[in-house]
Amino acid sequence: MSTDISQFIDQTTLIDTHEHLKFEEDWVNNGPDVLQDLFSNYVPADLAVAGASEEDIAFMMDTSHSNVAERFERIKKAWEAVQFTGYGEAVRIVAERVYNMAEITPEGIAAAQAINVQLRKPGQRLEMLKQKANLDHVQTDNFVWACLPDVSGPDFFLYDLSWAGFCNGDVPQEKLEEETGIMVNTLSDLRQAMAGLFEKYGPMAIAVKAQHAYSRTLRWVERSDDEAARSLEVILKDPEHAPEEDRLCLGDWGWARGTELSIEYNLPFKLHTGYYAGHSRMPVDRIKGGNLCGLLARYPAARFVLMHIGYPYNHEMVALAKHYPNVWVDLCWAWSIDPYSSLDFVRRFIHAVPINKLFAFGGDTGWPTSSYAYAIQARKWLTRALESEVQDGYLTEKQAMDIAYRLMQTNQQACFDIEGTRAAIAAHG
What we know:
By secondary structure, the chain is α/β, with parallel strands linked by helices. The protein has two domains: about 90 residues; about 300 residues, TIM Barrel. It contains 22 helices and eight strands. Strands 1-2-3-4-5-6-7-8 form an eight-stranded parallel sheet. Strand 6, helix 17 and strand 7 form a beta-alpha-beta unit. It is globular.
């Protein structure tokens, strides 16, 4: 049932703080067929956990087999088991809103392939995100340093400067020399190269981003230059077999340098916390946001955006945002991982933390159709969270809508220099 709150949230332009969107040319020339578009985002993990074999999932995704109905049949049983998860809900939204399927069936998928072909035309990507999803802009992490203007929408697609490699203790000498003209042989060289990357790309970046929680602990330890220099020497001698303790040492040092540079260039530092994409590979002890306390305390001038609400350690995110003035929490991806936990998180956050510290949405997706669906999903569950507070008598409808606006736009505008980034991109040409 439509309410004033739901109408307000549906009509309010939403800032998307986190995607991994592929470029326009990828969408047009090498984009997904209908099955890949429906199922290539996060739902394969749920399909595998539900019992689908890796072979069946791979067959379903293989476009060399032209019979899309036959490909779907291979995972149909698993799909029936996962269709009501958060990931499954996003798939159903794409099916309904993009491909006119009230229910995903082999026959419907076969008919939807024609729609898919029409979608992958120049300009359709931007139109779907800007008009249909009603997004102000999209912040994208392409896992690279470069934050160059996207000609398909230079003021719409804003890019993160990737720092995960340095946090992992990686030192790509040739790439650094190519980008900065500095061959890294010493710690001083590495410091200069890092500064060179920020000088080159920092003005056009919307933020710094690191997802090194996939490969190491989030616990940060302050390292001296001498310690880091010794670890760098070990790593450069044999990058493939460097001990973990040296990678952690140099990684912590590089993480700190990236944080200092983010302060200098007025860029928030986004950090992946919590849940892993995929399945069967998550060491839960190192993904807790609470591991970050040393870093948060050491750099009070930094702006840290802690992503994915630290799921399943959501309570730690509430505590961190309540305790540290330099912390913001981002619901990106969380609505699809576990919608009810995310709904509960919003409600708990309202009662514990200043409401200017929370961002409502980031899809964390690769294709525009998924971003569109995830935006719909976020709006739906945010509406439920705020309406519940109204029904409990804690908020008025006006207060709920004011909070929604903050979470969807105002808080992001205060944290990120959106217009400054757009101006730098325009000046670059």
